[in-house]
Fold each of these.
Amino acid sequence: MSAPRPRDVDALVAAALAEDLGEVGDLTARATIPADATGRAVVVAREAGVVSGVDFVVAAFAQVDPRLEVELLAADGDRVAPGTPVARVAGPTRGIVTGERVALNFLGLLSGVATATARLVDEVAGTGAQVVDTRKTVPGLRAAQKRAVRHGGGANHRLGLHDAVMVKDNHIALAGGVTAVLERLAGGPDAPGHMVRIEVEVDTLEQLRELAGFERRRIDAGQRPVVDVVLLDNMGPAGVREAVELLRDAGVRPVVEVSGGVVPAAPGEPSAARALAEAGADVLSSGALTHSARWLDVALEDE
């Protein structure tokens, strides 16, 4: 028994088809292909990559014409070589050409995210560091893009503003500084409950030293630390190494997340991500996985 489609898929496909078909449908298919014509075609990956988005392929053709039959030949998370067939579609020919672009748009976009993630995961293999995404996603496609990151071997950061506390530089500046923020998080009137994880971004070692001192005082007083994760932003390998040593010397042990410059390396270039991981990062977060990943080249070909 196959797993049910994620609940966002059908609505996203319906919106994409409505955008493409407008009020009158596919004029070209109707003008050039007989209504009773049937055919077969195959969706092919034209380059090496990691597949993501096969549910969208199935849904696109099913919504265009329920008589179309889609056979999946690859699964989300599969690594494919150039020329690998991903899916086969058979049935009314008009429906095949009408659903083609919507199916390929989702598959190419999401497979591109999965492929970029896999490259980054491969770069840091053996370091113990985990690759995660961010909230820099295409509006409306967050869940799908975050699934694609998982298909590529990465993991997900928070899903939105609603499921974790993440204090960034603007929060700190507008709230009066690191200590002021930590005091509110520790026991202010709107402090999150004990089930909510808390992450705080620091831009400088001075800010990190202030955070570590606050946490050390709490520990010495028999209180639990406030911060679960420290985000080091744009510090570079040397800065990350110094930051990790600072936390260790203070006896404070949050998860260390690093962002800034975390992108897959160009062929033949050294991996900046691996250097950050080897410097002591536990987690590497990359917005580029979802906002800048190049689409995988996929096509629909006659069979």
Amino acid sequence: MSKTMAFEEPIVKLREKINELEEFTAANSVDLSGEIKTLNNRLKNLEEEIYGNMEPWDRVQVARHPARPTTLDYIKELFEDFMQLHGDRFYGDDAAIVGGIAAFDGRPVTIIGHQRGKDTKENVKRNFGMPHPEGYRKALRLMKQAEKFGRPIICFIDTKGAFPGKAAEERGQSEAIARNLVEMAGLQVPVVSIVIGEGGSGGALALGVANHIHMLEHSTYSVISPEGAATILWKDSSLAKQAAEAMKITAPDLKEMGIIDEIIPEVTGGAHRDPKVQSVHIGKAIRHSLEKLRLLDGRELVEDRYMKFRGIGVFSE
């Protein structure tokens, strides 16, 4: 059963009422089609009102929904002949980062993305989607391979952040992330990144130095979680809702500031409601980006990426 978020309560209650009437109609051969139609119309209007006016904290909850589609879910729907590649050739394989080669519209591409689990067992295996250094080194290995063979790179961002544990620091977490930023900036193939859930801190940015950055409508992208920001600013993590509003971490805010290029619309209620339809929307965004970026040569791609990040923010003397 899907987790119900607080702001969805009126919708859930109305759906339950509709289901009760439908069951009563089926069991008693009573025609309540008129009443059911009226309630369905009311439900549609209510969904448009609630999902069309979500606050930043509401979007955070949707981005964290346990049933939200992951990188592997989208790979299954969007790409053909996916061959997953493992290991960083230095230490080991990190299950929090998945990557490999596939076909998109019949053309070879390299796919890299954060991967979290959907239950406790898988989350432990995937380290809750928080990569170790070997995960980022695996990602960089696949990016350099893609550049060697002229394949566009498509990244899916979905992590609370890089794993902050002692072992990760001992193996060079900061250096691994920093190297990815530098190397991605100079890649001479198209790079498209899509934030599909949470995009947290440098752990997300390590896959985010792209020519085009897109975000799902209810995803978040920030330097820190709202709880972390609230703890630092006000010494109280319970003020996360206020922090989420102040941090400007939602897709509309980031689009307005020029940090992302495009907002990918989500199906009503969030991507988890219909992953297949959501994949169609993501596919359109990827296709549109690759059509534009294929017109640029290697030098132009690097310049395009540089100017994109150079233009973020306001400079004053």
Amino acid sequence: MLAPSVGHYVFRRADQAALDFIPGQFIQVHFTMADGSAARRSYSLANVRTPGAAADGTVEMAVSYVPGGAATALFEALTPGQVVQASGPFGRFTLQPGDANARYVLIATGTGVTPYQAMLPALAAAMARRGVEVVLLQGARTLGELLYHDEFAAFAAEHPGFSYLPCLSREQQAGAHHGYVQQALPGIAPDPARDIAYLCGNPDMVDACFEALKAHGLPIPQIRREKYVSSK
């Protein structure tokens, strides 16, 4: 369990084939609803793989539990050895090879932080190769709900170009911003001349940050978005 209502799941492909993907992409899990209808849910890949390393058949993801949710029932009932059907990877919420920005501003709430977890090795490579800086603003209600908090904190300690700022709306903690992620934006001074921003998570947060970043002068092509909606 990453948090009281979020589990980290690890699967391995039954056909033993590798799953080649770009950090930031997602897969879709297919299942059958109680009424017999087909359904699918999307989950960002949480695998951390060094750039250039050979892909393997491991599939990792963070899954939020939605009370009464059909997908929640599917995952809660799984036992080791069971098989689920999935397709992918899909998506373009990834770092782009042609980026020449001076800083990435990564913003997330909930499981929307999962793509950034997968991006850490690629971000480290970009920081080493072209000196890009990275700021991660991660929003949650409490410290215990910050997914992959220890991993991000350790990464920040090892990489001087990486700044990590948790944003907690329901409690105060040393080293964390008290409030929502969009309220922390003025403190990092978004700059259209140097920033590319990524927004992932709750749709309301994504919309609020999108408008705030535009108000700071960032053009739309420099704001990359992916909204996470909890589906039953």
